[in-house]
Amino acid sequence: MKDQLIKDGKYTYLEIGTGQPLVILHGLMGGLSNFQGVTDFFPPKGYQVIIPELPIYDMPLLKTTVKSFATYLKGFLTHKGLTNVILIGNSLGGHIGLLFSKMHPSMVKGLVITGSSGLYESAMGDSYPKRGDYEFIKQKAQDVFYDPAVATKEIVDDVYATVNDRMKLVKTLAIAKSAIRHNMAQDLPKMLMPTCIIWGKNDKVTPPNVAEEFERLMPNAELFWIDKCGHAPMMEHPDEFNRLLDLWLQSRSF
Asked: Do the Cβ atoms of 236 and 147 come closer than 8 Å?
């Protein structure tokens, strides 16, 4: 997917198809390729899939926050002239989508969250991260998925490189603290946009009760489960993720 990236001023993004914009927000250690299934499936069905590269590690430390990323998203959408978008976010990306939707509700036609932070997140646990301990990082990467084999060597190597980069490590911890500060529990009941919640039944990072709480608090939310699935359903079960998302989009006539 890297060879398909568009560089436009300060923004780098993937854009495929035409039609209703689906804007995808990747997670803290996730990349654009995590949503390969979505980029393959939805453009032929009349959707424009857009995935901006979020400046996770490019912001000054004091601006390495969920709110800063939401502000960056506002700048990107304005730059592209996009309104009435459907935001799709995994993990931190879901949290960015939630906060953006609170800040700019008129720009959001619908919201899709999967394994989202914003209410609770165990992340890597109190012992994370152990710099230099490859096997520990490998175990933690595998714990993200129901099937540990999904955590390929390439994924583990990327996580290992991140936690052994001192500044990236500092910013990772800053983002984790920001996510805790930006708890959305008080905001969710006021957020009326149609919301699709797709969750892995075996998610260890944001457990199933978190998805149930999102559904309970959000007035216009629907919850869908994927069995034998961890924190990243669009990676672990892309076909089922696409099927559920497509059904929801059709039911809302997006």
From this structure: yes
- Exposed, middle or buried: residue 98 (CB in 10 Å: 0-12, 13-18, 19+)? buried
Residue 30 has pLDDT above 80, yes or no: no
CA distances from 64 to 24, 53, 91, 168 (A): 20, 15, 16, 11
What is the bridge-based pairing of β-strands 11-16 and 85-90? Answer: unpaired
Q: How far is C-alpha 43 from the chain's CA centre?
A: 19
d(CA 185, CA 189): 8
List the chain domain ranges.
2-119+182-251
| CATH class name, domain 2-119+182-251 | alpha beta
pTM above 0.85, yes or no: yes
Two tokens, residue 121: 């997140």
